[in-house]
Amino acid sequence: MVLERDFYLLPAQAVARGLLGKKLIRQINNQTICGYILETEAYDGERDEACHARNGKTERNKVMYGPGGYAYIYFTYGMHWMLNCVAGESGYPAAVLIRSIKPVMGLDYIRERRHPIPQEHWTNGPAKLTKALDITGELNGVDLCSKSGGLFIEEGVTITDGQVHTTARIGIQYAPEPWKSKKWRFVTEIMSGVEG
DNA sequence: TCTTCGATTGTCT
DNA sequence: GACAATCGAAGAA
Asked: What pLDDT does residue A191 have?
């Protein structure tokens, strides 16, 4: 079942927690690639000094200002694409960065794109998973609640609170406190025991 | 195993 | 003109 819009209209932290264990699905060229979401980060509003919306609305971040459930995909470090899903109501800029997934379908497709890198390193980073699933700026703004965009999220496995670990966000050393230390990174350790 | 550092370009000041 | 929500190779230990 594809996750419905309501799921994404909650605050970014709730969406980030809720996405753990859900299935990220990419359909391209009649192939389906999918994996369980293992790691996310919440970016919450213009007041969050680590959020791209901290300086207001721009051409780059405008998708974040729309309603939740759409893909916000941006380019950084001159070579990497990042996948986020927009959270919250329309008008409030918030998003959840997908940092890591466990691939369970379309392994041949990923292997082709990521060789000779070992399997455990295929999708364990935000730029790695976009490369593995062929996610680029062309998908910026697609509706994650619709299968027609080629990128969407479905119900997956249940993750209990005991399986969730929270830490400070990664790669935002430029941000001042308290934002730098907010524990808005959500990680789960279900690498084994999950079958597609 | 750990740390350092180069790659490479869109976006904003 | 500065720098970024990163990766992975190379070198040190």
From this structure: 56
C9 C1' – A78 CA distance, angstroms?
A: 18
Q: Count of CB atoms within 10 A of residue A52's CB?
A: 19
Residue A128 lies in a domain: yes
Q: Residues of chain A with pLDDT > 90: what percent?
A: 95
Chain C bases under 7 Å from protein CB? 3-8
In a domain, A194, yes or no: no
Question: Domain containing A120: what range?
Answer: 5-188
- Is A195 inside any structural domain? no
Enter the pTM of the model.
0.95
> What is residue A51's predicted lDDT score, i.e. its pLDDT?
98
Is the confidence at residue A183, as pLDDT, over 80? yes
The distance (Å) linking the CA of A173 with the C1' of B2 is: 20
DSSP string, A63-93: GGGS-SSBEEEEEETTTEEEEEEE-SSTTS-
CA–C1' distance A78–B10 (Å)?
A: 7
Query: What domain count does chain A have?
Result: 1
Lookup: nucleotide whose C1' is closest to A173 CA: C5
Nearest nucleotide (C1') to alpha carbon of A52: C5
Find the mean pLDDT for residues A107-127: 94
Q: What is the CATH number of the domain that holds A81?
A: 3.10.300.10
